């Protein structure tokens, strides 16, 4: 049974039958293949013949090792031969070295509409333009939003409050949401996803020799989700543990973890100078369950976890998300989407002295919407024009 994720089909729909490669990229097991299933159904509804929809998976289990881009091209040419216009759905293409050349050739010499998925952000990087000469559109795929999570859990007999707690505890990987797993089993599955990304997509691909050091760097990042730090501060911390690693190696580790969608950077934005700063950024996880899978669950983690949930929700909605720096004050998130901007503070509950949450926002001298997102439903209201919103209300798109 397919549980619909209509936002993604809606994002793809304007580009169907356009001469562009549609690239869907996100962390492994976030549901990209399910989006392909939905796309296939959409094409069938439009009258496309089933045999003209060619779906090819390029995972290690589905293809011979070290398949070349020429072999990829030849196989696909054979699959569409004599069929007229075909729709190519190519899953996890990053496993094929030089896939861009094969796809570009098909775009130029065949009557095809092309869609690809991958678990590496390099698929969405500027270097792809070298081969696709700007003829592609990128669509980010994330684990389940809270709204999608509720759909996955329909008919399970639990109310929204219970499901919110479950979402915070188990995260948004579809495979977890579809089942009713005990905590240990759920985190074991997430651990397997993480180790697939790390062992196959990072350690093996980049030939990391000191896995113990790499693992320690990852642990530091995960322990410090939602806190500012730099490659230098990681290096200094490891020195205190008598482990030596170069700052350059740490930068590489951070970049490779970003490429695998394990982490997302959140840079600082100077609200006075209206410029993105290059130092002391924060990192958030591709799904909060990654933190529990590696460190175990602890309520003391909630502050960082709630920030992570709000950060990912803003990314899903297409915002560029930054940490706000207003002189010496910090705003958790400044979210910018074209001409639109919102400011967001996140807290477990509003303290009696709410200077950080409300006071920091009041010092911003513009008229863009300002929110405090809280896990305490009793905090909600409006104070000095600032909306204090209960977390599940904020996570529902229609409520802002």
What is the fold's blueprint, element by element?
Blueprint: H1 6-12, E1 21-25, H2 32-45, E2 53-57, H3 69-80, E3 86-91, H4 99-109, E4 112-118, H5 129-132, E5 136-140, H6 146-152, H7 160-170, H8 174-178, H9 183-204, H10 211-223, H11 231-240, H12 247-259, E6 263-266, E7 268-270, E8 275-276, E9 282-285, H13 289-295, H14 302-316, E10 320-326, E11 329-337, E12 340-347, H15 355-362, E13 370-374, E14 381-383, E15 386-390, H16 391-395
Parallel strand pairs: 1-4, 1-5, 2-3, 3-4, 7-10, 12-13, 13-15
Antiparallel strand pairs: 6-9, 7-8, 10-11, 11-12, 14-15
Produce a short descriptive summary.
The protein is α/β, with parallel strands linked by helices and 400 residues long.
3D architecture notes:
The chain is built from 16 helices and 15 strands. The protein is an alpha/beta fold. Among the domains are: 135 residues, Rossmann fold (3-Layer(aba) Sandwich); 103 residues, Trna Endonuclease, Chain: A, domain 1, CATH 3.40.1350. An eight-stranded mixed β-sheet has the order 8-7-10-11-12-13-15-14. A five-stranded parallel β-sheet has the order 2-3-4-1-5, sandwiched between helices. A two-stranded antiparallel ribbon has the order 6-9. A hairpin with a 2-residue loop joins strand 11 and strand 12. The model has no long low-confidence stretch (mean pLDDT 91).
